[in-house]
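Suppose you are handed a protein chain with no further information: no name, no annotation, nothing but its sequence. What can you learn? This example shows the usual starting point.
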Amino acid sequence: MTETPARAAGRRPVTLRDVADAAGVSIKTVSNVVNDRPNVGPATRERVQQIIRELNYRPQVGARQLRTGTSGLITLAIPSLAGSYFSELAQAFAQEAQRRRHSIMLHTTVGGAEEERSVLSGFTRVIGDGVIFSPIAIGEDTLAAMDRTIQPTVFIGEHVPEQALPAGSDYVHTDNVQAAADATAHLAQRGSRRIAYVGALTVAEAAQEHSTSRLRVAGYRQALAERGLGPPVVQAVETWTLEGGAAAVPPLLANCPDVDGIVCGNDEIARGVMLALRTRGLEVPQQVRVIGYDDTRESRYTTPTLSSIDPQREQLVGTVLDMLIERIQGYDGPPRRVIAPHRLMARASS
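A reasonable first move is to predict its three-dimensional structure. Written in structure tokens, the prediction is:
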């Protein structure tokens, strides 16, 4: 293995100079190779890349930021990794960012509203080039009152006042009203006539016009009204989890014993609902059809397999990164709003 004298003692990280000395080229040439610039001959590029591999050289973020004005780091701020949806979303962002020669720095806002406010204020110090942010706890008035974000920002999710986005930001989201309406219509088309909705409607969420629960309930109600079905039956849950879904079934059946279709706020609720229905002797889909939301990986491996709304994560992730990188590279136009497509994945549960 090639090794410079300065590296022999292993007392410091490999530098551009170490690579240049070992390859017999200038520091500028190594920089051009590292940054994939075209003005390096094929033989020289191959030689430098070989030395980089041998020395295990890793560009330092601080050096890159001084040289190019960017670090290549993007912060992804999401509520939690406990649920399947956000963990799969984080993985999708990490993979696509890596393909684009960026790195994702993950930040979970499990501290609630105060932690989300720290994201908006740029943390205690600005790290990275931009932020992808899914807020759920801060009030919509907080976002509406902002003149400009500290860093280039793309908001995702539903808890955003889309008519009052701060300068320096964009917004990408799914049409939750239409998606929930599609899910409800699907159960009706399959023959369900007494359709309920199971999803969290906490006091805090109900007060927010763009909360996920409120939008999905609106879509559910809309689809029932269009088909002359009803009255609506909305069952609240403590949390959007397996446990929350399972715990919602007894009060739902007490309130609506003839239910034959259930639209769930997410796939985890749906999986809990299906389990609780089975323990009560109700077969899915023969007696009660069930559909979830998010099309998480587990939905394809439940018994029966779970019908779900697919938010098409790959396309959403690509759109978000396109817009954020444009802002990082200097775009300073007015806030943009993009509605990402969704599709219904019909499986055995419906």
